[in-house]
Amino acid sequence: MKAWQFTGTHEPLVLNEVPDPTPAPGEVVLKMTAAGLCHSDVGVLEDEGWLSMLAKLPITLGHENAGVVEAVGDGVTDYAVGDRVAVCPTTAAGAPGYGFDGGFAEKMAVAAEALVPIPDEVDDVYGAAATDAGMTSYAAVITNGGVKAGDTVGIIGLGGLGQIGARVAVLAGATVYVAEIDESAWPLAEQIGAAGVAASIADFEGVAFDVIVDFAGFGTTTAQAVDAIRRDGTVVVVGMGRLEATISTKSLILNQCNLRGSNGGSKEDIAGVYEYMKTGQLKPETTTIRFDEIAEGLERLHRGEVKGRLVATFD
User: Fold this and answer.
1) What is the pTM of this model?
2) What is the pLDDT at residue 159?
3) Contacts of 25 (CB under 8 A, 6+ apart)
């Protein structure tokens, strides 16, 4: 079978012919249907710092995966040939594309414990996109932010994650205000269902935020969130635009702010995303390419030419 493999930093992916995988006990083999391309894949190609995270070289990249079960190993009872599934990259099985060969290939072997069923109402492209951007956004807003119906929520940053996070908060029944410095994105905030949009979370005078999720993480954005949160409110930081923030301890203490980070998510978070996708009301912006365009797609990502999530489909 064909697989796009990483062979070394500053080198393009290589389309190699590799043996078809076979399922070990507890594993399944997936016939791939969709695989998301991520900025972290670009990071692997460009930065030597990622090498310590890779189990081997060469390795097939691809950590946002959807496919159909083609074979099952001994001991697998929860899944059968023909099941449509996605792969959670945060289980004890490890992350595909890092700990073992990932989904930039025609087939992949993966532990059954990492699988999440894809509902019939959700297509493969969304099924793959939900395993990273969807999972991370949902976990930040619902699991770690605790957003519920009736809450007033601030979303900072309307990029790939923020768009999904804002929409999830709206669908959860919250009143959502979006802070986005790029005014060209403001119409999108209205389409998502936001009650208001401004350049900064500090611009919403008189709004008592129960939860603020900072998908930008540029230091000042986190500091402004701590200032703006209501007493006993929660600020969740997801973005890493800057790796440090200087916050007011006065605001932290007087607001009794619950300040927490959010990193990735779980199988349950992916399943939660699918529940919203099933309704047709959560439709993240996606751009699709063919399997044979994956290397070129990563170049497009690197150049900033992609809108929404970039997903490769397999014919």
Assistant:
1) 0.94
2) 86
3) 73, 74, 75
